[in-house]
Amino acid sequence: MIAVEGVSKVFGNGTVALEGISTRIEAGAFLALLGPSGCGKSTLLRLLAGLEAPSAGAIVWEQGRPAAGEIGFVFQDATLLPWASALENVVLPLRLLGRPRKAAREDAAAALAQVGLGDFLGAKPAALSGGMRMRVSIARALVARPKILLMDEPFAALDEFTRHRLQEDLRGLWSRSGLTVVFVTHSTYEAAFLASRVLVMSPRPGRVAADFVSTVAEEVLRRDGPSYVAFVREMSQRLRQVMPAEGVA
Amino acid sequence: MRGWLERLAPTLFGVALLAAWQFAVWATGTPKYVVPGPWDIVTAYLANWGELNAALVSTLTVTLAALAAAAAVGVVLAVAMAASVLVRAAIQPWAVALQVTPLVAIAPLIILWVNQAFAALVICATIISFFPILANTAAGLAQTPAALLDLFKLNGATRWQTLMLLRLPSAVPNFLTGLRISGTLALVGAVVAEFVAGSGGFASGLAYRILEAGYRLEIPKMFAAMVLLALAGVAIYAALGGVEYLVLRRRET
């Protein structure tokens, strides 16, 4: 689906964020980009989204570059419009894409119902909890039926209970929809729980240090299954090997 | 009990101050054409009720017209500056220059150039009051969350959509803060312009009444006009603060 071919990114101040990244992202995959702060995970995500251009190399979309609205993006914070209701926030991408108003509102309501917020259409962000705001953000990313969903550490700021609930819901959503997901995280537990494949990245400059296909069996929804624990251990060992002397962030 | 006391403290302090002032004037026998007591000021206000209130309405009309003009000019310039680096570079130094030039120095020229007195006063008050709206709105437009700008870009938003649906609504809290500061500046601008125009014989607002009372040594009346100005300033600031509170509360809850 996407071929990342020798991609490097050097910022204006000379910082080499990524160097020689090559990989393929297959349709329907749930790919986790795992690594410590500063390893270029978010930069790679922004390059995939087309929000930044690579300094060298290329990102090739085999079915053609996605049109506006065909990439869903979930940011670290929910980043909702504080003056708009949950429904208006989710309608927003459809409004920007020029979809008819009535159909847009119906689609947005359906997307909110899909993430369990069917009863909160009129609520403004200030009235919602952190987890609910993130659900609105996910609904907003899904409402235009994107080809790919890019998520930049979306659950990092949430409490553990809410994070686990959202991870479970996201995994269910992915397995039901067959959507392609690229998910940035610095948690081996999160990567092991969610992903079908994990790219472990090393920092300064960001490189791919290891490429794991998940070996976690279907008992994944229990976080203490033997294959889950073994996969976490395997990724943690690899991360320790690629980390600089000051340790894993 | 303590809460009530805190709320009443400004009033109690004011009453105590007025009582001390009245007592000092009475005890020292100071003539009222030098320092009038509070009671003399109230009496002067009641004696000139119609004239002073008409002057207050005139000054407030200039102030509110100038505030509306300042809001329009400030927002339009802020949007233009946010839209283009070139426009920002061209406008910013002139806006700062206009802000730091004392109004009292340019008001005579404006009154000379603009034949219509009301328009001249509004222009003077607008010049002194538009800058906080411009600066605050420009800061609000610049502080639009980067992630939301990315979201708009990913969904193919036009510049117009980004401005109307994201940047301007994001800048509303900053605009309202600027408006509150500009409200009192517009009053100051109106008064300064009225002083300049008043010395040229244009009879209108409270500033003219202050000048006139000064010439006639009607010091209690002069104080009454000044008290009205101070109260008008406090009322404008409080009203715009109330508008800010209500708009922001309504929009986010």
Core attributes:
heterodimer; A: 249 residues; alpha/beta; Rossmann fold; 2 domains; 3-stranded antiparallel sheet; B: 253 residues; mainly alpha; 10 helices; flat
How do the helices and strands line up, and which of them pair or pack?
The complex is a heterodimer of chains A (249) and B (253).
Chain A: E1 2-10, E2 16-25, E3 30-34, H1 41-49, E4 56-61, E5 71-74, H2 86-96, H3 101-114, H4 130-142, E6 148-152, H5 160-177, E7 180-185, H6 188-194, E8 197-202, E9 207-213, H7 226-242
Parallel strand pairs in A: 3-7, 3-8, 5-6, 6-7
Antiparallel strand pairs in A: 1-2, 1-4, 8-9
Chain B: H1 2-28, H2 38-47, H3 49-83, H4 85-100, H5 103-113, H6 117-142, H7 146-154, H8 159-199, H9 206-215, H10 219-252
Helix pairs in contact in B: 2-10, 3-4, 3-6, 3-8, 3-9, 4-6, 5-6, 5-8, 6-8, 8-9, 8-10, 9-10
Q: How would you portray this structure in words?
A:
The complex is a heterodimer of chains A (249) and B (253). Chain A has 249 residues and is α/β, with parallel strands linked by helices. In chain A, 36% of the residues lie in helices and 23% in strands. Chain A has helices spanning 41-49, 86-96, 101-114, 130-142, 160-177, 188-194, 226-242, and strands at residues 2-10, 16-25, 30-34, 56-61, 71-74, 148-152, 180-185, 197-202, 207-213. In chain A, helix 6 (188-194) packs across helix 7 (226-242). The longest helix of chain A is centred in the last third of the chain and has 18 residues, at 160-177. Chain B is mostly helical and 253 residues long. Chain B has a single domain (36-252), classed as MetI-like fold (Orthogonal Bundle), CATH 1.10.3720. The model of chain B has no long low-confidence stretch (mean pLDDT 91). The interface between A and B is medium-sized, with 26 and 19 residues.
Percent of sequence in beta strands of chain B: under 5%
Low-confidence stretches of chain A: none
- Count all strands of chain B and give the number: 0
Mean pLDDT of chain A: 88
β-sheet strand percentage of chain A: 15-25%
Intertermini distance of chain B: 32 Å
Determine the fraction of residues in helical runs of chain A and give it as a percent range. 25-40%
The SS-based structural class of chain B is mainly alpha
Count of structural domains of chain B: 1
Unreliable runs of chain B = none
